Amino acid sequence: MNINQELLQFYAYKKLIKRKEIPDILAECEARKIGARDYLLLGETITETSELEARAAYYCMPSVEIDMLDIDEKLFSLFSYDFMKKHKVIPIWEDKNGVVTVATGKPLDAHALSALSTQIPGRYDFVLVPPSQIDRYIDSRSAVESTKNALYDLNSEKTDKLIMALGGDSTLSTENDVINNPAVRLVDSIIKEAIPFRASDIHIEPFEQKVKVRYRVDGDLQERAEFPIEAYSAISARLKIMSGLNIAERRVPQDGRINMTIGDKEYDFRVSTLPTVFGEKFVIRILDKTSFQFTRADLGFTDEENAVVDKMLAHPHGIILLTGPTGCGKSTTLYSFLKEVNDPSVNIVTVEDPVEYSMPGINQTQVNPKANMTFATALRSILRQDPDIIMIGEIRDEETAEIAVRSAITGHIVFSTLHTNDAPGAIVRLEDMKVKDYLVADALVGVIAQRLVKKLCPACKKRGKTNAREMEILDIAEPVSIARPQGCQFCNNTGYKGRVAVHELMYMNEKMRNAVLVERNLEKLRELAIENGMTPLAGCCKDLVFKGITSIQEFMSLTAE
Questions:
Q1: SS (H, E, C) 127-146
Q2: pTM: predicted TM-score of the whole model, two decimal places
């Protein structure tokens, strides 16, 4: 039995794959000349996190995610970033007996062991971590160091020399001079540092004396750096050059775009400027265009919710709506649905503003109001393109709503989003947009309301019994154990790391369709939806509190909304 077959047999035993799939996987591995694990990762059958426990058992070693480790700075500084990334190792700590514990992403790598022993002779214990987490940790350390050095150099430079240099001063006569300019290095490192920190947006804000840099991480803004206002002209010019904006124009808002490859991924940075009292504020939205790998499980759908979504997606025609405020992950969820239904036998066309993720096999169209390419005009053209499935980024007006609903009742599956507070509110919103109630009843397959709540940091969260006030908030009679945020180095002392979606699923069965025709009261529609099996957003969030995934503070934020 070769190593590929042995690993697949073990993964089948651990229920990561089905035993009957092994011959086909082996044949594909042979044809593509790749290992079984690489094949499973490429096909998204497994992820580095889902396989971690099984892979550790296969190699008979403990496993952990890197965020759970407290890394010894003295040991860490003995190795270069390039060395640790190449060999996928990070030294963690040394015990009193001189045994060094090393996090590794490549078990049984003789080259890595040999290279380690030249730096730290002695005995080693290994703990398995996902290889990508090693890369992310090292990238974050490298980016923070780069930003710190660029800030130091920026503060050491004469400001007027900096501004003149970026504007074409003879002191920057070579490409090397430009690249090594502190303003250039600072902008590059601010952008690159945001990636390992999992930031969704970068805010660069000028004030009277200083310029602040903040990252939006898990929905909250966190301050990352500040530098003197005198250097802002150079920073602003660099950002405008990178994003193709007019350097001379400072009185009106501008929008631009930066494409960068960081690591082995291509990122799209959408740049927006806004004139303020002390200068132009920049907000940079970060999009990973090449790596959309979300599944429903990653997005927080439970088994019960998945059963309802399966029923929705099985409909041959109709409209499926996602609702919620801006930034709650509606588009991400829509993309995960599109990924599921994407098949060579169907024609999928989207109209978006903007196209956030590029998906192979799907025809994606971008709205362009300047060229009179609105959602409504794009939709009319799309209907002449023989589509099976249509995705509309957002239903914003009566015309788009009318075309979307009529497309749904004429044999198409339509996915779209609406801004409403809950799932039943989508019915009232469509009727407000002058869509007839009988068309809504006929076209609507289901509505999913979504919110994002912050996940407690797994490294520092602490469990404890609920007190009287918490029992009152959760509406329970007996104390239960819940987890609370603490704060540590891995979550930047916030107590939270990552976010998960909570959902409210309203499936349009016969009772709900009849109610749409006779009922205009939102509260009555909500009551009927709950009677028909809909779990409200608050109920879903409460379950996450009981499971220790989120905190009671997040539950209170959701219910207050």
A1: EECCHHHHHHHHHHHHHHHH
A2: 0.70
Please determine, for residue 159, whether its predicted confidence score (pLDDT) is greater than 50: no
Task: Render pLDDT for 329-340 as a digit per residue (tens, 0 to 9).
Answer: 888 899 889 988
Report the interhelical angle of 159-166 vs 182-194 (nearest 10°): 80
Q: Please give the distance of CA 247 from its chain centroid, rounded to a whole number.
A: 32
The angle subtended at Cα 218 by Cα 212 and Cα 220, nearest 5°, is 40
Residue in the block written with tokens 């400072």: 250
Round to whole Å and give the CA distance between 337 and 341.
6
Question: pLDDT digits over 437-471, tens only?
Answer: 999 999 999 999 999 999 998 878 889 999 999 99
Alpha-carbon gap, residue 227 to 190, rounded angstroms: 12
Task: Please state the length of the chain.
Answer: 561
Strands 254-262 and 265-276: antiparallel
Three state DSSP letters for 58-106:
HCCCCECCHHHCCCCHHHHCCCCHHHHHHHCEEEEEECCCCCEEEEECC
Q: How far apart are CA 359 and CA 133, in angstroms?
A: 25
Strands (E), 115-253: 124-128, 199-206, 210-217, 220-228
Check residues 171 and 205 and name the one with the higher pLDDT: 205
Cα dihedral 368→200→448→551 (10° resolution): -160
What integer pLDDT is reported at residue 440 of this predicted model? Answer: 92
> Are the C-beta atoms of residues 542 and 535 closer than 8 Å to each other?
no
Task: Report the C-alpha gap between 428 and 418 in whole angstroms.
Answer: 11
Please determine, for residue 172, whether its predicted confidence score (pLDDT) is greater than 60: no
Containing H/E element for 528? helix 522-531
| Tens of pLDDT, residues 320-374 | 999 998 888 888 899 889 988 998 899 999 998 878 777 888 999 988 877 888 8
* Token digits of residue 440: 């809504």
How far is it, in rounded angstroms, from Cα 172 to Cα 162?
Answer: 10
Contacts by residues 176-185 (CB-CB < 8 Å, ≥ 24 positions apart): 181/234, 182/150, 182/153, 182/154, 182/156, 182/157, 183/154, 183/231, 183/234, 183/235, 183/237, 183/238, 184/238, 185/146, 185/149, 185/150, 185/153
